[in-house]
Each structure stands twice: as C-alpha cells, then as structure tokens.
C-alpha cells in the first residue's frame, strides 16, 4: 500500500512553504483550441475568381489556390495549387485532429509558371477529403514549413 501526504502550510501552486526562493511550477494546461477556430481564422480571398488561402509559415510563406469552392465537399477530388517559399522539394499531408488522413491522389507536381502571382515556387496537388471537418494541411520543404486549415462539409 502506498500512502502519500503533504504537511506544508503554503498556498498550493505558489511555492510558499516549499523553501526560501523556491517556486513550484504551475500545473495548469491551456485548453486546446478547437480545429474549427483555425478554419474560421484562415485568411481567404479570391484570385482570378478562385478562392485562395494564406497559410501560417515557419521560415516560409504559404499560399493555396483552390480549384473548388470552400468549404470542399467530402469524398470528391479537389485540385489545390500551392506557392511556398523556402528550399527543397515540397511534401504535403492533410489530416483531421482525430488522425484521419486525406488521400493525396496526385502531386505535388512542380509547375513551371502560371498567371497566379504569389511568392515562392508553385506545385499542384489533388486531394480527396473522406469526411467533413476542419482539415490541417501541412506543407514542408527542406527549409521552411507551413500550415493551412481548410473546411470540408
């Protein structure tokens, strides 16, 4: 049998009674932010009558041009063109917070150029999102990475 106890006189979490100059670490954990909030915060606009999104980059700038209206329809293939700064080949994955992965049907395919002007090199991808939700798209290069959140109904 294990018995534990505490005989301190201080206030919990303040470190009082724990010894001179000692502060106990806080045990509070911030509440997770629901994925839908990220979908709502995704910066959207229209370029050449197609919806575009700006992602959050880490050492890179990330843009996506959607070849279907947002939110996407679950189960249907959608073409997305990406522009991303950085160095190296592009790797793209898409997942829901529960771990469900989208199917990358083709790409990333490097594009030689287009009429869509955003910073970085350009690639095309095809995805099928199997169910509704707020999908996290993760883009990585040897130097630089980024995230875009996309709604699917």
Describe the structure.
There is one protein chain. The protein has one domain: Immunoglobulin-like (Sandwich). The strands form 2 sheets. A 6-stranded antiparallel β-sheet has the order 1-2-4-5-8-7, with no helix packed on it. It is mainly β and 153 residues long. It is globular. It contains 1 helix and 10 strands, in the order H-E-E-E-E-E-E-E-E-E-E.
Note the topology:
Blueprint: H1 35-41, E1 43-47, E2 50-54, E3 56-58, E4 62-66, E5 77-84, E6 91-95, E7 103-111, E8 121-128, E9 133-140, E10 145-152
Antiparallel strand pairs: 1-2, 2-4, 3-10, 4-5, 5-8, 6-9, 7-8, 9-10
Region (Disordered): 1-31
Biased composition (Gly residues): 7-20
Give short descriptive properties of this protein.
153 residues, mainly beta, Immunoglobulin-like, six-stranded antiparallel sheet, four-stranded antiparallel sheet, 42% strand
Poorly predicted segments: 1-35
Give me the secondary-structure category: mainly beta
What's the shape? globular
Please compute the radius of gyration using only Cα atoms. Answer: 22 Å
- Could you tell me how far the N terminus lies from the C terminus, measured between alpha carbons in angstroms? 53 Å
CATH architecture descriptor text: Sandwich
- Tell me the series of helices and strands, N- to C-terminal: HEEEEEEEEEE
- According to CATH, the fold-level topology is Immunoglobulin-like
Our count of helices gives 1
The CATH class is Mainly Beta
Query: What amount of the residues lies in strands?
Result: 35-45%
Q: What is the averaged pLDDT score? A: 81
Spatial strand arrangement across the major sheet: 1-2-4-5-8-7
The count of DSSP E runs of length 2 or more, i.e. the number of strands, is: 10
Q: How many structural domains does the protein architecture include?
A: 1
The level of helicity is under 10%
Largest sheet: 6 strands, antiparallel
Region (Disordered): 1-31
Biased composition (Gly residues): 7-20
């Amino acid at each position: 049998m294990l018995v534990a106890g505490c005989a301190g006189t201080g206030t919990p979490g303040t470190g009082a009674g724990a010894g001179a100059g000692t502060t106990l670490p806080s045990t509070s954990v911030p509440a997770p932010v629901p994925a839908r909030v990220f979908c709502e915060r995704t910066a959207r606009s229209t370029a050449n009558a197609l919806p575009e999104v700006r992602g959050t980059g880490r050492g890179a700038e990330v843009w996506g041009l959607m070849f279907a209206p947002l939110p996407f329809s679950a189960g249907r293939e959608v073409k997305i063109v990406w522009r991303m700064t950085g160095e190296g080949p592009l790797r793209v994955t898409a997942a829901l917070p529960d771990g469900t992965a989208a199917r990358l049907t083709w790409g990333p395919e490097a594009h030689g150029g287009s009429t869509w002007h955003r910073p970085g090199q350009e690639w095309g991808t095809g995805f099928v999102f199997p169910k509704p939700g707020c999908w996290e798209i993760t883009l990585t290069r040897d130097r630089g990475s980024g995230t875009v959140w996309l709604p699917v109904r």
